[in-house]
Amino acid sequence: MALQLENVTKRFGEFTAVDHLNLTVEKGSMYGFLGANGAGKTTTFRMILGLLNANEGQITWNNKTISYETSPEIGYLPEERGLYPKMKVEDQLIFLGELRGMKKADAKKSIDYWLERFEVSQNKNKKVEELSKGNQQKIQVIAALMHDPKLLILDEPFSGLDPVNVEMLKKAITDFRNNGATILFSSHRMDHVEELCEKLSIIHHGKQIVSGSLRDVKRSFDRQNVRIRSDHDLTGLDNVPGVLSVAHSVEGAVFQIDDEEVANELLSAAVQAGPIRHFEIEEPSLQDIFIAKVGKEYA
Ligand SMILES: Nc1ncnc2c1ncn2[C@@H]1O[C@H](COP(=O)(O)OP(=O)(O)OP(=O)(O)O)[C@@H](O)[C@H]1O
């Protein structure tokens, strides 16, 4: 049981938005789909949902082509949040639940559960336009989850949510995964992907440039970070040979290196500059990998 994309290509006229993309999301796993603005993520999601036709390649869910029949199994949070502003929250969710094949009574039960879980029950009879942006986002998330889908496609699910609500949504989608659902989501927040996803892809100009488990992706990136915390000025360390890049902050600095010997040099130089509070060699973050692969301008 899996979502499978084989050699999927989408062209808009002369322009290739998605270029021979291959990916498999195993049942019960969470997959992070990353890429800069315009990389082709939403286009890929629309093809998975059958909203756009691929020019080449094949997309299957449990070995079947996704169609109207499979739609009750799928939950989709679109990037362009498409709620009717004048419609009341409950009426709107009942309507969307019925479109996914739910009976009205089941939809109402599920809506009550999710409104309460997301702490927005007080908005049940309000028009969508009366809600804050974050609360509208929660209603749209409920529309994607309320029919208990087996496959969840979430386009930037955390955008617009405050940190408390981000945690609430993370818990909800993790519960879905733990109950066996298969989840594919896009995000510009590398820390969320790092925390939640077993596997990931980075696409760039429609082409997959990185894919695999988080562990393998990190292992194959032959750079490390040296984090030094100190109250002293560390800018003198920027020119230590072998430092690939450096980020200074109020706490100290993080140096990117590709040779552990350079870490020793940095330690000696830091101690000479003054007392240090912390020294650590860290594995690269997904953010480091993304920036190195896709380019600084997108970070
Ligand atoms: N209907 C369309 N006609 C022509 N070009 C399109 C169409 N839809 C998308 N594109 C182009 O395809 C490319 C990929 O767009 P897409 O929306 O899939 O990117 P994305 O990775 O989701 O970006 P973002 O992170 O900004 O949401 C972009 O260059 C976009 O302009």
Please explain how this structure is put together.
33% of the residues lie in helices and 29% in strands. It is an alpha/beta fold. It has 2 domains: 2-218, 3-Layer(aba) Sandwich (Rossmann fold), CATH 3.40.50.300; 222-283, Lrp/AsnC effector binding domain/regulation of amino acid metabolism (RAM) domain (Alpha-Beta Plaits). Helix 2 packs across helix 3 (104-117). Adenosine-5'-triphosphate binds at residues 12, 17, 35, 37-43, 79.
Q: What is the topology?
A:
Blueprint: E1 2-12, E2 15-26, E3 30-35, H1 41-48, E4 56-61, E5 64-65, E6 74-77, H2 89-99, H3 104-117, H4 133-145, E7 151-155, H5 163-178, E8 182-186, H6 190-196, E9 199-204, E10 207-213, H7 214-219, E11 224-229, E12 245-249, E13 252-257, H8 260-273, E14 278-282, H9 286-294
Parallel strand pairs: 3-8, 3-9, 6-7, 7-8
Antiparallel strand pairs: 1-2, 1-4, 4-5, 9-10, 11-13, 11-14, 12-13
The structure holds adenosine-5'-triphosphate.
Tags for this model:
Rossmann fold, 4-stranded antiparallel beta sheet, Alpha-Beta Plaits, globular, binds adenosine-5'-triphosphate, alpha/beta, 2 domains
Let me know the largest β-sheet.
Answer: 6 strands, mixed
Named CATH topology of the largest domain: Rossmann fold
First-residue to last-residue Cα separation: 34 Å
Structural class: alpha/beta
Large-scale geometry: globular
Low-confidence stretches: none
Pfam families: ABC_tran (PF00005), DrrA1-3_C (PF13732)
Protein name: ABC transporter ATP-binding protein
Domain ABC transporter: 3-230
Family: Belongs to the ABC transporter superfamily.
